[in-house]
Amino acid sequence: MGGFQDTFQRKEIKYILNAAQYREMLRWLQPIARVDSYGETTIQNIYFDTPDFRLVRSSMEKPLYKEKLRLRTYGIPEVGSTAFIEIKKKYHGVVYKRRIGMPYGEALRVLCHGELERLLGMARAQRRLEEQAQNDRYTEAQIAEEIAWFCRVHRPLLPAMKIRYDRIAMVGIADPSLRITFDRNLRWSMHLDLRDAAEGEALLQPQQALMEIKIQGAIRPDIAHILSGLGVYPASFSKYGEGFAQYYEDARRSRRTLSWLAERAWQNARDTFGRPACDHDDPEVPGQSGGNLENRWQQQTQRTGGLIYA
Questions:
Q1: Coil, helix or strand for 275?
Q2: In angstroms, how far is CA 112 from the centroid of its own chain?
Q3: Structure pTM?
Q4: Most buried of the four, 81, 95, 169, 208, by CB within 10 Å?
Q5: How far is CA 40 from CA 26, 183, 238, 260, in A?
Q6: How many CB atoms lie within 10 A of CB 132?
Q7: CA-to-CA distance for 13 and 283, rounded, in angstroms?
Q8: How confident is the model at residue 190 (pLDDT cuts 50, 70, 90)?
Q9: Per-residue pLDDT averaged across 67-96, rounded?
Q10: Looking at per-residue confidence, does 128 or 197 come out higher?
Q11: Which has the closest alpha carbon to 126: 111, 142, 146?
Q12: What is the arithmetic mean of pLDDT over 259-276?
């Protein structure tokens, strides 16, 4: 998709900066990095999870391998605006990200209405074109198939939480592989439609910024030196994880159960999108129908037990 990179394999080192550290980092970076052509951008994401938030709860235990699925737009989308379905994996500290672009309305039908056949149909058409071109790169067809596989393996899935923030992205002037981003105004919300401009709850203090240094190998000595001089050190921070931690804590204080969380997540998704894909239909299984989605969700929720405050 024009100007957007579809595959990434890199380390992402995160730092939480106060206002003075943020200003000093921007000043120090001026000779070696520039703001990319998009300038400051509002990034919006819908993260997908099981009704009982199994994926994010597992991720918060910091396993060696973890993965997530999200829908991303840049700015407030229209139905025809470009959106990205992204699958992000992390193994031994290395991040692998694959994504494909499509109109926002189409992406909702794939992820929120369970229409995986749309995604796989696109993959088949793309693969035919790539075979004709004898293209051996990591293809859009492969990415689409990987996303469909994720949806099947982790089902039931549904839209779970919205995360939005304002980002400035910088790239190295002499070294284009250097990429540094600054995110501010980080917020989470259960208002899931990305066209809803509701701000949501803050993830950081008002004057703080999240800096990410995205590199292929070791961090540059000059950058390490300035970070040390400013008293800035790596931080473990997941936007979705932090948002869920706040949501979870509110529920814990109210002595809610995982079943209550699951029921509320299902209802919220259904209220927003009408027919959330709590269980994606498998297009390769003849005769499978989405007509019993709610029954399948109810059965799954009934198996979700335990008091989350226990």
A1: coil
A2: 15
A3: 0.86
A4: 169
A5: 13, 9, 21, 38
A6: 8
A7: 39
A8: very high
A9: 92
A10: 197
A11: 142
A12: 87
> Which residues fall within 8 angstroms of residue 107, CB to CB, at 6 or more apart?
71, 83, 84, 85
DSSP 170-210: EEESS-TT-EEEEEEEEEEES---TT-----EESS-TT-EE
- Residue 283 three-state SS: coil
What's the length of the chain?
A: 310
Instruction: Confirm if 277 and 157 have CB atoms less than 8 A apart.
Output: yes
User: How many whole angstroms separate alpha carbon 43 and alpha carbon 266?
Assistant: 24
Q: How far apart are CA 293 and CA 281, in angstroms?
A: 9
How many Å apart are CA 42 and CA 164, to the nearest integer? 7
Tell me how far apart the alpha carbons of residues 107 and 118 are, in angstroms, rounded to a whole number. 9
How far apart (Å, rounded) are the C-alpha atoms in residues 134 and 155? 34
Angle at 288 between CA 286 and CA 293, to 5 degrees: 170
The CA distance from 251 to 248, in Å, is 5
Give the residue-averaged pLDDT of 163-168: 97
CA atoms within 13 Å, Cβ hemisphere of 85: 26
Phi and psi torsions of 68, nearest 5°: -150, 160
DSSP 220: P
- Could you state, in order of their start, the residue ranges of all structural domains in the chain? 7-299
Spatial separation of the C-alpha atoms in residues 118 and 109, rounded to whole Å = 8
Q: pLDDT band for position 216 (50/70/90)?
A: confident
Both structure tokens of 27: 């000043």
94-103 vs 201-202, strand pairing mode = unpaired
Which string of b and e fits 40-69 if b means at least 16 CB within 10 Å?
A: eeebbbbbbbbbbbbbbbebbeeeeebbbb
